[in-house]
Amino acid sequence: MRTEETGSGPTRTPSQPEERRPGFRERAELASQRVPFRIKLAVVWVAIFTVLGVLFALAQFDTTWLADNFWFIALGLPWTIMIAALAIIVAVILALLGALGRLSRNPIAVGVTGFYTSFFRGTPLIVQLFLIFLALPEIAPEGWGWLGDRLTLSVLQTGVIGLGLNYGAYMTEIFRGGIQSVGHGQREAAEALGMTYPQVMRRVVLPQALRVIIPPTGNEFIAMLKDSALVSLLGSVAGQMEVFRRAQLVGRADFRPLEAFLVAAAIYWALTTIFQYFQSRLERRLSRGYVRAAVQRKTKWVPASASGAFGSGAMQVEVAVEDDEATPGPMEHGH
Hints:
It is built from 13 helices and 4 strands. It has helices at 24-33, 37-59, 63-74, 77-103, 107-122, 125-135, 145-151, 155-180, 184-192, 197-227, 243-253, 257-286, 323-326, and strands at 2-6, 9-13, 299-304, 315-320.
């Protein structure tokens, strides 16, 4: 800091702060900002799979056994998908009825749907499956053998009904939230046009509620694909074994349970990844007209000093520029 003599006495003028050279961390952050996000994400995935590959090699799995039994385990995929697909249909129907019952003013509908959601959300799924499979035929009175026969379900039927009832209870709240997301003004306008309650729901409310309902419903379906493995605990017919049941049997027979469950995990992972891809495509399609496109702004890197002002320092910052500044004008090209 230096002083200058004036008529009224010496005054001090502030000196410029000394520029500080960026440290290693600042230089690393600056270098990271110049690398595209997709490239950094790809590097992370490559590192993860490299670590998994090293662990796989150190575990010394029997790769010959994995190759020989992979297709036997994969043949359970059609049954896994069929159980989940039929169960999600049952769940959607029950969730829609449950949501309409929860939103109605009928005490019977509110009470029944409240009991349904409370019971199936408050008890474990595996307990529900065993109750349907073992306890349901026991409720038939003596002498009503025909009713007991009707209530005796196969493993496949039990899995579909049990998963549908359980997930329908959770999806009831999803459907209720989607229906309530539609403004009351639209319902009032539809009623003013003379529409009945079913017409309002079918033509006005539900088409708009689907945009809110479908994303979490897709997540529930993906979770249902994995929970279908619980059906194997009930036992299964030889020709109707899903992925986990096949892996369990072949791994136990050859004393290779770790390899068998590793194949099953890989199949489930690949299956859920595929459905997640289609779910994201469907979400983007449904969100058209509701999500505004982000405005892309052009930026440039300029040198800056340690004090934060633009200058000739070693530090660089990214600032937004106008279109005419980012695009060279005619004079800059020598015209």
